[in-house]
Design goal:
The protein contains three helices and six strands, in the order H-E-E-E-E-E-H-E-H. The protein is of the alpha/beta class. A six-stranded mixed beta barrel has the order 1-5-2-4-3-6. The longest helix has 23 residues, at 2-24.
Length: 133
C-alpha cells in the first residue's frame, strides 16, 4: 500500500514537471490579423494596431510576452498577448501584421513557429535582440 502511494506521488511529480516545461515553449502554426481589423477593439479592450507587436492566444494571460521564431528562416519577434484567438483550430497564434512581416509569414499567410514564454529576467535582453533584427 505504501509503495503504491509513493509510486503515485512520484508519477504525479514527474508528469507535472513535464507539463510545466511544455508550458514555457510550444510550436505550431501562426497566422496574422488582416489589416481591416486595425483600430478594432481586442478582447482585452485595447485597440488592435497593425504596426504593433501583439498576438492573440487562447489561454495565456494578457500581457504575457512571447518570443516567436519562424522555423523556416529563424527570424524572431517579441510580441505581447492582448487578444483571444485564433478561432481556427489548427492555428496556435494570431500575430499582428508587423510581427508577421518581421518573421516573414505575410506572403504565405501562415507559418510554422516556435513560441517561448519569456520570464521577467529575459525580457530586456529579448526586446533588445528583437529590435536589432
Amino acid at each position: 500500500m505504501v509503495k503504491s502511494i509513493l509510486l503515485l506521488i512520484f508519477c504525479s511529480v514527474i508528469s507535472l514537471s513535464i507539463v510545466a516545461k511544455d508550458a514555457r515553449s510550444f510550436q505550431g502554426k501562426a497566422s496574422f490579423y488582416a489589416r481591416k481589423f486595425n483600430g478594432k477593439r481586442t478582447s482585452s479592450g485595447e485597440r488592435y494596431k497593425h504596426n504593433g507587436y501583439t498576438a492573440a492566444h487562447r489561454s495565456l494571460p494578457y500581457g504575457t510576452l512571447l518570443e516567436v521564431t519562424n522555423k523556416a528562416n529563424g527570424k524572431k519577434a517579441v510580441v505581447r498577448v492582448n487578444d483571444r484567438g485564433p478561432h481556427r483550430r489548427k492555428v496556435l497564434l494570431d500575430l499582428s501584421y508587423a510581427a508577421a512581416k518581421k518573421i516573414g509569414i505575410v506572403r504565405r499567410g501562415i507559418g510554422n513557429v516556435r513560441v517561448r514564454v519569456l520570464s521577467k529576467q529575459e525580457i530586456p535582453n529579448a526586446l533588445y535582440a528583437s529590435a536589432r533584427n
